[in-house]
C-alpha cells in the first residue's frame, strides 16, 4: 500500500456474532494477520477463519476448542499461520496455510500455570508473537492477585518450525510486546521484550535477548518508582525505541541501552485542579524515524477525572535525531498497532470518557509524513494488519453503558490502494 494513498474503498466480511464491547476497554479478544494469499482472523470465540486476499472467499475454518478461549495474536510463519490464545491453556497453534489443519500446538499454561480464577484477566495470555528467520518467538504470561498484591509468571519462547522449543526465558514480570530481527547476519539476531509491569524480582522494562541462544545481551529500565515500566519496544539496526510507562516519555537507546535521546509524550500536566498523564502504549521505529502512540488519560490521584490530557490518543512522529516532525489524533484507545516498513496501522477503539462513535476507525500513518489513510467503522476497531499491498482490520460491536444502542458488527474490513 502506497504511503501517499487515502484508502476508502474496502470490503467487509462477517465474523459471526459476539457479545458487544462496553464503554471501557476490556482487553484484546481478536487478531488478524496477512499472508501471501490469505487474510486470517482469530476470533473472540476461539475460531480461526482464512479468506482469499483477492476474492475474500473463505478458504478454511478452524473451530475453537472451548467457549473460554479467544485468539489474541496471529502472524504468518513457516508457510502457515501461528496464533496465540487467551484461555485456560494459553495455547500457541500453527495452522497449515493451505488446509487449516493444525501442524502443532503448545500450551503455555504448562509453564506459566493454571488460572487462579476462570475469568478473563486471570486466564493465561499469549501477549505477542514475532518471527525472525526460521523461528517463532512467543511471550506468554499469567496474572494472579492476592488482595492488593499482583504477581505474574511469564515465559518467552523460541519455537522452531517443527514446534520444538529452542530456548525459553522466564521472569516474574508481565511481558506486553516483542520485536525480533536477524541483525547483520543470523548470529547477530535479537529479540527485544517489553515488560509493562514488574512487581517482583525482575526489575527491567526492556530485555534484549540473543535470538539464537536466548542469552541476555542487555537490559534497560526507566528507573521510576512503582510497577509500571514499558509499554512497547521496537528494534533498530543499533539499539531500540521504547515507549515508557514509568515516566510517560519516548526513548531511543543505542547499543547496550545507552540513551541517545528522550522526549516528553503525555507527561504529567496540570489542568484545573488535576494532574493528568497518559501512557505511551506503542512505538514503531525505522531508519526514517519513530512513531509513538499514547493511550487513555489518568489522574495522578485516583482513577476518575473530569478532564482529558491534551496528548492522549495521539500519534507522534519523530526524526531519527529526536525532533518532533508531526502529530495526529488517533481518536481513541488502541490496544495494538500493526506495522510494515514505514507504515503503521492503528485500530481505534472507544474513547471511554467521551464515547464519541465518530472516533471508531482504522488510521494508517507514515513514519515520515503522518496520517495517510483512514477507514471509518460503526463499531470499534480492535485489531489490524498491514503490508505493502493492503490493510485488514477487525471491527467489534459496542454498546456504551449510558446509551444502550448497539453499534457496528463483528467483521473484517479489507482494503488497498
TrEMBL record:
SUPFAM superfamilies assigned to the protein according to its UniProt record, in alphabetical order: Quinoprotein alcohol dehydrogenase-like (SSF50998)
Location of the Pyrrolo-quinoline quinone repeat domain: 46-220
Organism domain of life: Archaea
A UniProt-annotated Pfam family: PQQ_2
Ranges of Low complexity composition bias in the record: 1-13
InterPro entries registered for this protein in UniProt: PQQ_b-propeller_rpt (IPR018391), PQQ_rpt_dom (IPR002372), Quinoprotein_ADH-like_sf (IPR011047), WD40/YVTN_repeat-like_dom_sf (IPR015943)
Residue numbers spanned by region Disordered: 1-26
Name of the protein in its database record: Tup1 like transcriptional repressor
Organism, as annotated: Halococcus salifodinae DSM 8989
